[in-house]
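Quiz preparation item.
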Protein backbone atom coordinates (compact mmCIF):
# COMPACT_ATOMS: atom_id res chain seq x y z
CA UNK A 1 0.00 0.00 0.00
CA UNK A 2 2.79 2.44 0.85
CA UNK A 3 4.55 2.16 -2.55
CA UNK A 4 1.28 2.98 -4.33
CA UNK A 5 0.79 6.01 -2.10
CA UNK A 6 4.36 7.20 -2.76
CA UNK A 7 3.95 6.79 -6.52
CA UNK A 8 0.64 8.67 -6.45
CA UNK A 9 2.21 11.49 -4.40
CA UNK A 10 5.14 11.77 -6.84
CA UNK A 11 2.77 11.83 -9.79
CA UNK A 12 0.67 14.58 -8.22
CA UNK A 13 3.81 16.56 -7.36
CA UNK A 14 5.09 16.22 -10.96
CA UNK A 15 1.81 17.41 -12.46
CA UNK A 16 1.68 20.38 -10.06
CA UNK A 17 5.31 21.33 -10.82
CA UNK A 18 4.80 21.14 -14.60
CA UNK A 19 1.55 23.09 -14.34
CA UNK A 20 3.24 25.77 -12.28
CA UNK A 21 6.13 26.04 -14.77
CA UNK A 22 3.76 26.38 -17.75
CA UNK A 23 1.54 28.81 -15.85
CA UNK A 24 4.50 31.08 -15.09
CA UNK A 25 5.67 31.03 -18.72
CA UNK A 26 8.65 28.70 -18.28
CA UNK A 27 8.01 25.49 -20.20
CA UNK A 28 10.32 22.75 -18.93
CA UNK A 29 11.26 21.59 -22.43
CA UNK A 30 12.78 23.85 -25.09
CA UNK A 31 12.12 23.18 -28.77
CA UNK A 32 14.91 22.81 -31.33
CA UNK A 33 13.62 25.96 -33.04
CA UNK A 34 14.07 28.08 -29.89
CA UNK A 35 17.52 26.59 -29.27
CA UNK A 36 18.53 27.59 -32.82
CA UNK A 37 17.15 31.09 -32.23
CA UNK A 38 19.25 31.29 -29.06
CA UNK A 39 22.35 30.45 -31.12
CA UNK A 40 21.51 33.13 -33.69
CA UNK A 41 20.98 35.78 -31.00
CA UNK A 42 24.26 34.87 -29.28
CA UNK A 43 26.13 35.37 -32.56
CA UNK A 44 25.09 39.03 -32.54
CA UNK A 45 26.22 39.77 -28.98
CA UNK A 46 29.50 41.34 -27.91
CA UNK A 47 29.77 38.87 -25.02
CA UNK A 48 27.81 35.75 -26.07
CA UNK A 49 28.68 33.83 -22.89
CA UNK A 50 26.52 36.26 -20.84
CA UNK A 51 23.33 35.47 -22.82
CA UNK A 52 20.43 34.38 -20.65
CA UNK A 53 16.95 33.73 -22.00
CA UNK A 54 14.36 35.19 -19.64
CA UNK A 55 11.19 34.18 -21.42
CA UNK A 56 9.86 32.87 -24.71
CA UNK A 57 6.51 32.93 -26.47
CA UNK A 58 6.57 30.38 -29.27
CA UNK A 59 3.94 29.93 -32.00
CA UNK A 60 3.24 28.28 -35.34
CA UNK A 61 0.92 29.45 -38.06
CA UNK A 62 -0.02 28.29 -41.52
CA UNK A 63 1.15 30.64 -44.28
CA UNK A 64 0.46 30.87 -47.99
CA UNK A 65 2.91 29.69 -50.64
CA UNK A 66 3.31 33.33 -51.71
CA UNK A 67 4.48 34.22 -48.19
CA UNK A 68 6.81 31.22 -48.16
CA UNK A 69 8.48 32.17 -51.46
CA UNK A 70 8.95 35.88 -50.55
CA UNK A 71 11.93 34.81 -48.42
CA UNK A 72 15.09 35.51 -50.49
CA UNK A 73 16.55 32.15 -49.41
CA UNK A 74 13.57 30.44 -51.04
CA UNK A 75 14.01 32.14 -54.42
CA UNK A 76 13.40 29.56 -57.15
CA UNK A 77 12.02 29.57 -60.67
CA UNK A 78 8.28 29.53 -61.33
CA UNK A 79 8.48 25.94 -62.60
CA UNK A 80 10.17 24.82 -59.37
CA UNK A 81 7.58 26.69 -57.28
CA UNK A 82 4.74 24.93 -59.12
CA UNK A 83 6.29 21.50 -58.68
CA UNK A 84 6.94 22.14 -54.96
CA UNK A 85 3.32 23.22 -54.46
CA UNK A 86 2.00 20.17 -56.33
CA UNK A 87 4.09 17.75 -54.27
CA UNK A 88 3.33 19.37 -50.91
CA UNK A 89 0.81 17.51 -48.79
CA UNK A 90 0.24 20.33 -46.29
CA UNK A 91 0.55 24.12 -46.51
CA UNK A 92 3.75 25.85 -45.35
CA UNK A 93 4.23 26.84 -41.73
CA UNK A 94 5.89 29.83 -40.09
CA UNK A 95 7.57 29.20 -36.74
CA UNK A 96 7.84 32.36 -34.65
CA UNK A 97 9.26 33.06 -31.21
CA UNK A 98 9.42 36.23 -29.15
CA UNK A 99 12.46 35.81 -26.94
CA UNK A 100 13.18 38.07 -23.98
CA UNK A 101 16.82 37.90 -22.93
CA UNK A 102 19.55 39.69 -21.10
CA UNK A 103 23.26 39.91 -21.82
CA UNK A 104 26.24 42.09 -21.20
CA UNK A 105 26.62 45.00 -23.62
CA UNK A 106 29.80 46.45 -25.09
CA UNK A 107 30.41 48.70 -22.08
CA UNK A 108 29.75 45.94 -19.54
CA UNK A 109 26.20 46.89 -18.56
CA UNK A 110 23.49 44.24 -18.52
CA UNK A 111 20.95 44.92 -21.26
CA UNK A 112 17.47 43.44 -21.64
CA UNK A 113 16.14 42.96 -25.14
CA UNK A 114 13.37 41.23 -27.06
CA UNK A 115 14.04 39.48 -30.35
CA UNK A 116 11.54 38.07 -32.85
CA UNK A 117 12.84 34.89 -34.44
CA UNK A 118 11.14 33.34 -37.48
CA UNK A 119 11.58 30.37 -39.79
CA UNK A 120 9.40 29.37 -42.74
CA UNK A 121 8.99 25.63 -43.22
CA UNK A 122 7.59 24.03 -46.35
CA UNK A 123 5.70 21.34 -44.45
CA UNK A 124 6.18 22.07 -40.74
CA UNK A 125 8.32 19.02 -40.05
CA UNK A 126 11.77 20.52 -40.61
CA UNK A 127 12.92 22.60 -37.68
CA UNK A 128 16.12 24.57 -38.20
CA UNK A 129 19.33 23.43 -36.56
CA UNK A 130 21.77 26.04 -37.88
CA UNK A 131 21.68 29.70 -36.85
CA UNK A 132 21.91 30.99 -40.42
CA UNK A 133 18.54 29.39 -41.20
CA UNK A 134 16.47 31.67 -38.92
CA UNK A 135 15.71 35.38 -39.10
CA UNK A 136 16.15 37.60 -36.07
CA UNK A 137 13.98 40.71 -36.22
CA UNK A 138 13.41 40.11 -39.94
CA UNK A 139 17.06 39.73 -40.90
CA UNK A 140 19.45 36.81 -41.35
CA UNK A 141 22.73 37.04 -39.39
CA UNK A 142 24.82 37.30 -42.57
CA UNK A 143 22.88 40.40 -43.69
CA UNK A 144 23.06 41.85 -40.16
CA UNK A 145 26.84 41.35 -40.01
CA UNK A 146 27.33 42.94 -43.44
CA UNK A 147 25.71 46.20 -42.37
CA UNK A 148 27.71 46.56 -39.13
CA UNK A 149 30.17 49.50 -39.06
CA UNK A 150 33.16 47.20 -38.54
CA UNK A 151 32.10 44.59 -41.10
CA UNK A 152 35.48 44.40 -42.86
CA UNK A 153 35.71 40.70 -42.07
CA UNK A 154 32.96 38.27 -41.25
CA UNK A 155 33.15 37.14 -37.62
CA UNK A 156 34.06 33.45 -37.59
CA UNK A 157 30.97 32.38 -35.66
CA UNK A 158 28.61 33.83 -38.32
CA UNK A 159 29.75 31.73 -41.25
CA UNK A 160 28.43 28.43 -39.90
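Solution:
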Amino acid sequence: MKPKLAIAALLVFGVVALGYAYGRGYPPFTSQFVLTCDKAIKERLKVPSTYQRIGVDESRRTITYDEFFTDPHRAVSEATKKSMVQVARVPPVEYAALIDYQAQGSIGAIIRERARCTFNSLDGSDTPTLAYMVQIDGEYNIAWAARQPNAVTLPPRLDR
